[in-house]
Amino acid sequence: DFGKLAKDLGMKAYAVGGxxxxxxxxxxxxxIDIVVEGDGIEFARTxxxxxxxxxxxxxxxxxxxxxxxxxxxxxxxxxxxxxxxxPAALPIVEFSSLKMDLYRRDFTINTLALALNPGEFGxxxxxxxxxxxxxxxxxxxxxxxSLVEDPTRILRAIRFEQRFGFxxxxxxxxxxxxxxxxxxxxxxxxxxxxxxxQLIMVEDDPLPPLRRMNEFAVWPVLSANxxxxxxxxxxxxxxxxVVSWHRLSFLDEPLERWWVYMLGLFSxxxxxDVEDACGRLQFTAGQRERIAWAYRxxxxxxxxxxxxxxxxxxxxxxALQPFKPEELVFMMAKAQDETPRRAVSHYFHRYRHVxxxxxxxxxxxxxxxxxxxxxxxxxxxLDARLNGEVKDRQ
Length: 394
Ligand code: CTP
Description:
- The chain contains 19 helices and nine strands.
- The protein is of the alpha+beta class.
- Strand 3 and strand 4 form a beta hairpin.
- The longest helix is centred in the last third of the chain and has 24 residues, at 285-308.
- Cytidine-5'-triphosphate binds next to helix 7.
């Protein structure tokens, strides 16, 4: 019904970008991007009013987001100008506004558009050879300045290449190498760089794109001392195994996968290098503290605490309780032998859910005078319960 509305408003609407690409690749993609030839904000506002859904605008960029009740989003952009002169030095080329909008995009495979208006619905529009490159499984930029305009595309190329099992085209490879050599990634703001690395780290299998980043000599942008060797690769393989284990075991429990891989990436660095890399990525003070703390404590647990003795469940509980799931998952992958792995797994499955049946309130009713003694009693009770010395009331 986007098409019908566009027609009623005297506009033309197209689905574009990743949505069309994934449609042709038969991959699911719930993010729909729409470009309208006309006023996208008016289009989105009318749609939202007619369907009783929420809508947000970016007046400055002439874009809007439709937000459906199930949280699905549809981005709407406007392509309003009727013709352009581009490139300036060549004779005037008349571009349709849609064509101009698509020309600004990153790779040919992302420039396909699907007409939505009635009468032409479903017609595929391919100005830049996107279909051919999809068929040839090639990632190709549209023009030589693409990566200069937006260096994040270096990382996007790697991400798409590995996700789809494509190859970056020869010319585009040369442009990437050149862009890296020219230090274009160094010029990128920390948040944007972090965002792109996060997107790579939440890919289904982050190892291939992370390895490819190494082939393109991208890592020095974070630290000269990241050594992408077999040891680090093995760690990433184990991290992925434990991340999958966590997902299957605790379906509803969120896990920030990028954080797990970031801990992995940093684990081979010296503390000062970790600090520099965090600075480069503009981590928040909270994130820096969390990294530094994990960096200091995890190895102490793995090589100090766990091998020292057979620990009671209560001791394991106390040792692991301060950690969030991401650090625990990292710990399991990093552990060299079975004992810590099993301990963390027990903690995940059992210990962390244990609590005392008795609460402070009950102690008060029993006539125990309030004070620090409460903590002591409840802690001891919890320990006894963890260690199986107190059983549930049946
Ligand atoms: N785009 C671009 N340059 C960028 C980022 C995005 O040209 N640096 C364009 C691409 O053409 C892309 C569209 O904007 O198709 C939307 O980008 P994004 O939201 O990243 O969507 P997808 O291509 O669908 O990527 P993903 O599948 O990872 O969501």
